[in-house]
Design goal:
Layout lengths: L7 H11 L15 E5 L2 E4 L4 E4 L11 H8 L5 H10 L8 E7 L2 H16 L3 E5 L8 H4 L3 H4 L9 E4 L16 H18 L4 E7 L14 H11 L3 E5 L26 E4 L10 E6 H8 L13 H16 L2 H13 L3 E3 L2 E7 L9 H13 L2 E2 L1 E3 L5 E4 L7 H21 L7 E2 L2
Helix pairs in contact: 2-10, 3-10, 4-9, 7-8, 11-13
The structure holds pyridoxal-5'-phosphate.
């Protein structure tokens, strides 16, 4: 492809003319024109190098192995891909069937269909502030979106985020896992009282747009018990958080304890590291119920040899470059300063410790100052005050030191110069 020689202003004008404004820009007041990227770095049209801490796709930009693999794709890779994913320990023994698709949204939409066929029920329980994809079916189960659109459908039931920092049950609660799971039980019972029947509980294994939340260990097994009792299945969305991002485990749901096994796992984003491929893994009974309809699952590009070759190449790079262990060590370093797991970290900016009031404007200001310092990151959470550290897994210890030093300098500067930030604290 020929290099784009347009000025940033011309590119923006063209974009404004041709692209819907609902496709938002990061940093709308002064967007960055990224013209190339490699590993954890992004480069603008002037050659300035930015450290990427925003990445939803975990393994780093444009690793050449993935693209070389895409040129070498062959039909055998489809079978191998399922086998390689299922060999990721401890891929639950009863998760046996794999569907390959083109996008993460397709994966969650199929998970919804599988759950409904298997259970014969229609309704879904989701966590507050969740986002599960851009298809109509998924906007309906994404409070993050539907709250700003036409609202909650009667078949959707929302349970509180298991957030032990801001939620109703906090660090000082004797058993937040049980308390939050009981909230799900309460939501299920109230739906049942209205004659509704639960098909599934959908949750990201670590809710991301909700504010980089780490549910208390044991919460998922307790929730699964309530959901199974209601005849539903547990869907773990590993689209952002799977594939080693959390460091010590390959799947983020493993943080919940050895005994927990979801009924359906959805994967995307990192599985192709930039190439459009996604996957749904499930148990034999769920897959069989779907087959029993007699209707084939057809997806023109899903599971193409090229996509599966890219997926295998990503797994190879992950192993060869020991990115999972790397995420653990860089993550542990950052963890001395911030809260999170592996390279999935949230910094909750608050105005004061007693009320934990979100420091929303300060967070936005910090993000723009970091951008001036060539670090790209974003905010999230209901109060948009959580700094999301989601660098690619090749993010180095040196990068971590640089980012923390810059963050520190800006915070010090803010405390001196910005009155409204005088009570700003980094919650460790
Ligand atoms: C948790 C989660 N699930 C599903 C999706 C949908 O992914 P895609 O836009 O690739 O279809 C996203 C995208 O941001 C996501 O964060």
């Amino acid at each position: 492809m020929a290099a784009d020689r347009r000025s940033k202003a011309d590119t923006l004008a063209l974009r404004q003319r041709l692209i819907s404004s609902s496709c938002r820009l990061f940093f709308p007041e002064d967007p960055v024109k990224i013209v190339r990227a490699q590993g954890q770095y992004m480069y603008d049209e002037q050659g300035a190098e930015y450290i990427d801490c925003i990445n939803n796709v975990a393994h780093g930009q444009y690793h050449t192995s993935g693209w070389q693999a895409s040129l070498k794709g062959n039909p055998g890779v489809h079978r191998k891909s399922g086998r390689r994913i299922s060999s990721r320990k401890p891929c639950p023994r009863n998760i046996l069937f794999f569907f390959f698709l083109d996008s993460s949204s397709e994966a969650n939409d199929l998970a919804l269909r599988l759950a409904r066929h298997y259970t014969g029920h229609q309704d879904v329980v989701v966590l507050d502030h969740a986002y599960h994809g851009h298809l109509s079916s998924l906007i309906d189960i994404s409070p993050y979106k539907f709250r700003n659109l036409d609202g909650q459908k009667e078949w959707v039931h929302v349970a509180p985020l298991p957030d032990t920092y801001r939620g109703p049950y906090r660090e000082d609660h004797p058993n937040p896992a049980v308390a939050y799971a009981n909230e799900v039980k309460r939501v299920v019972s109230s739906a049942q009282e209205k004659g509704r029947k639960i098909a599934a509980f959908f949750a990201e294994s670590l809710p991301s747009v909700g504010g980089q939340i780490i549910p208390p260990a044991g919460y998922f097994s307790q929730v699964a018990e309530h959901i199974h009792k209601a005849g539903g299945v547990f869907v773990a969305d590993e689209i952002q958080v799977g594939f080693g991002r959390v460091g010590k485990h390959f799947w983020a749901f493993q943080l919940q304890g050895k005994d927990f096994v979801p009924d359906i796992v959805t994967m995307g984003k990192s599985i192709g590291n930039g190439h459009p491929v996604a996957c749904v893994a499930t148990t034999q009974p769920v897959a069989r119920a779907f087959e029993a309809t007699g209707v084939e699952y057809f997806n023109t590009f899903g599971g193409s040899p090229v996509s599966c070759a890219v997926g295998l190449a990503v797994l190879n790079v992950l192993e060869k470059e020991q990115l999972q262990a790397h995420a653990t060590s860089v993550g542990s370093f950052l963890m001395e300063l911030l809260r999170g797991v592996g390279l999935f970290i949230g910094v909750d900016l608050i105005k004061d410790e007693a009320t934990r009031t979100p420091a929303t404007e300060e967070a936005a200001y910090l993000v723009s100052r970091l951008k001036e310092n060539y670090v790209l990151l974003s905010t999230d959470g209901p109060g948009r005050n959580i700094l999301k550290f989601k660098p690619p897994m090749c993010f180095s210890l040196d990068n971590a030191r640089q980012v923390v030093a810059k963050l520190d300098a800006i915070l010090t500067d803010m405390e001196e110069k910005v009155r409204s930030c005088q009570t700003l604290r980094l919650q460790l």
